[in-house]
Amino acid sequence: MNLDPHTREELARGLRSNTLVLFLGAGFSTGATNQLDEAIPVGETLCRKLWSFLRFTQEYDGASLQDLFELCLRRDKKQLSFLLRDLFTSKDLPEWYQLVPKIYWYRIYTTNIDNVVEKIYDFDGVGTKLEVVDGRRADYKDRDQFLETIQLIKLNGVDLGDPESLTFSCLQYARRASENPTWYDHFVRDYS
C-alpha cells in the first residue's frame, strides 16, 4: 500500500501517542470460516441465508437485510439464535489476522456481531487481553490506564443467543436512535 508522506506521518504520530482507533466492518470477517465451514456471511449472502431461514418458496427477491431480520425476529427467535451462532461463531482464521494485535489500538470498534476479533486475541503469543463491551447496553467506561487490555466495542450487540439484543432491523435501529447511543457518541469522538 502506497501512502502519501502526510498520511504516513499521521499514522506514525497516532502510533506514538496511542490514539489509533480501529474500526471494523463486515468485510473484515469474510476471511474467517464459521461453524458451517463457510465464510462468515455478509451482504447478499447473509440475506439469502435469512431468506432460506424464513422458508420462502420463491427465489430471493433482493429484500434488505433489515427487513429480513425483522421478519426472522417475528418467526422464531430461538431457531434464529441457533442460526446466528452457526453463522457468526468463527471456527478457523487465516494467519494474516495475527497482524491486528501487533498494534496497541486506542480502542477497537466494530459493527460486526461475530467473534472474529475475540478469536484473534486468543491466538498463542498475544499478550494483550481484550475487554469486550456491549455497545448497546454497557455504560461508558474508561479504557485500561495500565494498557493491559484493549476495549472491543461491539456497537450492534454481542449476544447471539438473544437476537432482540442485536441491531439489524429498521425497528431496532430506530429504537437505538431514540435512546442515548453512548458508545456511538464515543466512537465519533475517538475516531475524529
Give a verbal description of the structure.
Helices cover 37% and strands 13% of the residues. The chain contains seven helices and six strands; from the N terminus they run H-E-E-H-H-H-E-E-H-E-E-H-H. The protein is of the alpha/beta class and 192 residues long. The chain has helices spanning 5-17, 43-53, 65-75, 77-88, 116-120, 170-178, 182-191, and strands spanning 21-24, 33-34, 90-92, 107-110, 129-134, 149-154. Helix 2 (43-53) packs parallel to helix 3 (65-75). The longest helix has 13 residues, at 5-17. The strands form two sheets. It has a four-stranded parallel beta sheet with strand order 1-4-6-5, with helices on one face. The two termini are 23 Å apart.
Map the helices and strands:
Layout: H1 5-17, E1 21-24, E2 33-34, H2 43-53, H3 65-75, H4 77-88, E3 90-92, E4 107-110, H5 116-120, E5 129-134, E6 149-154, H6 170-178, H7 182-191
Parallel strand pairs: 1-4, 4-6, 5-6
Antiparallel strand pairs: 2-3
Helix pairs in contact: 2-3
Strand fraction equals 5-15%
- What general outline do the C-alpha atoms trace? globular
Distance between the termini: 23 Å
**What is the mean predicted local confidence, pLDDT?**
91
E-strand count? 6
> Would you identify the regions where 5 or more consecutive residues have pLDDT less than 50?
none
Spatially, the strands of the biggest sheet line up as: 1-4-6-5
Helix and strand run = HEEHHHEEHEEHH
Number of helices: 7
Described by strand count, sense and barrel closure, the largest sheet is: 4 strands, parallel
> What is the subunit organization of this protein?
single chain
In angstroms, what is the radius of gyration?
18 Å
Q: Which structural class matches the secondary elements? A: alpha/beta
Q: What proportion of the residues is helical, as a percent range?
A: 25-40%
